[in-house]
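INTERNAL AUDIT FORM
Audit reference: QA-55
Scope: verify that the stored structure record matches its stored sequence.
Auditor: D.O.
Record contents follow.
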Amino acid sequence: MRGAVSKQQQPRRRWTKLKISVAAISVIALAWMIVMPALYWQYHESRKTLNSFSNALVSQNYARAYAFTSPELRQVTSYGIFLKKNKNLVSQFGKLRRIDVANWNATDSKDGWLATGKTIWVFARISLPMNIELKKKHGKWKIFSYHSP
């Protein structure tokens, strides 16, 4: 009979399939173990920067908050404009109490590390949703943009 597999060949095929499966799973697991710590670290570091930026805004230390912004953001928003916008928010909605993070994601893109998230800016009289984006340049996370959706 052609195509018939002998009883000796059946266990070998199963053993070969098992070895291939174990090898594939091992490669995937190894890649995962290499990627996950880096991803976790970038996630954690970007959140630290966001928290520091948020704390500076909540304490109305606008110069410190502005120091967390990227050169790209500073090119389009001078410190004077940054200060005016944040003071206008406080006069319009009351003191900023906190900034809650509703969703956060850090990814490695072709241009480097990028973190994006949806935040809720909780003022005394209202809560406003804000999208925020951070980029890592020269080893430091910086606020690249933030705006209401």
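Auditor finding: record pair retrieved intact. The chain has four helices and four strands.
Action required: none
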